[in-house]
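Help!! Second protein's tokens look totally different from the first
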Amino acid sequence: MAEFFSDLLETDSGLVRKWGRQLVAVQDYSEAVPEQFFDETGLPVLPSTAKQLGFITTEGSTAAQAVSATPTNMLQILQPVRNDLESKEKTYAMAFGEGSNAYVWGVYNGQKVADFPASPGGAFLFSGGEPEFPLYRLWLIAADGVGANARYRIEYAPAAQVTATTDRTLARSNPETLGFTFSCNWDTAEDTDLMVMENGPGLIEP
């Protein structure tokens, strides 16, 4: 039986991923969506207008897809005979560990990227925040492996918006963190809410 199952089983340990290297960046919604996300060698290309948000805490980035459906039942059986989807919301949640990063504070206060301070490590002053959070082009780029074996994942939400923030704790024992939930709104111009893609040097035709 064991030999039969081994012949039947289809697995590939080379497709198991751990994304220990990540970056998250934002652009203003007015920025153009790239035509190409990878260069000719399979490496990701991040536009110069994208502002990175620095260290991510060790919990990493959580990508969620909340699906809501309404079941239809009939008298004779207990199980639903059909389910009708009502909504499908995709979100990203992560916390950033650079408590003095001016770009992170810009997101926290609902600023457009064009209004961010000139440098992430420079002086800043935020007062009151904006009445609502703007739309961003949200980038998450992750890497697993090195050299010719490297695999790169890009998750790109063209109309992301902050819909939740975490509490901040100022303490001696732990670093200050700023956490966000980004909701992936539907972008009518791009006809999508999220693009997920992978590439790498080992996947390029020689």
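Here's the second one for comparison:
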Amino acid sequence: MSKCLLNSTFLCQNVAQKLRSSFRTAVPKSVPAPLSRRNVTVRAGEDMEDEFDMSAVGLEDLYDLVDASEMNSRAAWLPGSYSPEYLDGETLPGDFGFDPLGLGADPVNLANYRESELIHGRWAMLGVAGMIAVEASGNGSWTEAPLWAVSEGSPTYFGADVPFDFGLIVAIEIAFMLFAEGKRSQADAESRLYPGGAFDPLGFAKGKNEEELNRLKLREIKNGRLAMVAITGFYSQALVTGSSPLANLAAHQADPWVENIAKYDAILKNAFP
């Protein structure tokens, strides 16, 4: 009788799901010798007359296979990569199992990283929008913004003079940041991340069910990550070319064969010997 090799995860998943629905709450956790992290191969006849031996396989082993299969059947940051157990793809918005260094294995660290990523993403979105808006409106570029402080000139806001000196502006910024950080430290974890109220002036989150809120959270974290990549690119671009994003784009469009990364090959070689 010809034999076929069935995929162990697929077969065990079907068996375990049936067993789980009927017996998981009734079956004790103690099982035969665990087979976790082992390859389980089951051979069966095409007519399924042969009964495969399940005596060496505990139910918890099958449950582990199902859990691993479900966890790794979702979208991953790298095709073929495996997600760590603490990243289940459901608890955290935008979770694609990316933690190659295992930095989030500690639940406390994972919560801190989640909060830091969201906050930095929001700052990056504000920064990118500000960099583009000022330059697009014809009021200079972000690379020129700090020059007034260095040259002892007058600070400006969208081209208009600001009646404050550098020290007063720094003091006001510190005061506002201390107030915000103080309020943030008094709130619970979820309120710190999504305070709502005055921080949702357009009411995007009002009247939304859980599914809609999760969709908004996913969009926010995705755009925040993209903004962090963008602002890193803006800084790198300014260091290499000494120019701003829109100015570089206009120069490249005007003469793409000259205004490109090859023009700055010598600078890049000196920066990264």
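Reply: Different proteins will give different token patterns, so don't panic. The chain has two domains: 3-71, 107-271.
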